[in-house]
Amino acid sequence: MNISKTEQRVLHVLAQGGLIRFTRGSNGKLLETACFTHDGAILDGCTPDLVSRLRRKRLIESRNSSPYRISAIGRRAVRAQPDNRTS
To answer: Which H/E stretch holds residue 51?
Structure first.
């Protein structure tokens, strides 16, 4: 599966216990998204378009209107790296 560098970075954060909080508009579309690491820091570059691509590929999921987390498919798709911290 082709996963861009930014998608890979978000998946790494989610695999380490992060989550994506979102706000929906009255039409049901995503208006704002924020990706939080397990430490509570915000990952830059997590746009609604990026979240939509990850959802379309079924790499992330939200259950009962909770924040998005990595799915089982996403765990298998993320590449293992010795140091995946953003710089």
So the answer is: helix 48-56
- Residue 59 burial class via C-beta count within 10 angstroms: exposed 0-12, middle 13-18, buried 19 and up: buried
CB 54 within 8 A of CB 62: no
Instruction: Provide the whole-model pTM.
Output: 0.84
* Backbone phi and psi for residue 71, each to the nearest 5 degrees, phi listed first: -95, 175
- For 14, 54, 69, 72, the CA distances from 29, given in Å and listed in that order, are 22, 15, 18, 24
83, HSE (Cβ side, Cα atoms, 13 Å):
2
Spell out the domain ranges in the chain: 5-76
Q: pLDDT band at residue 65, thresholds of 50, 70 and 90?
A: confident
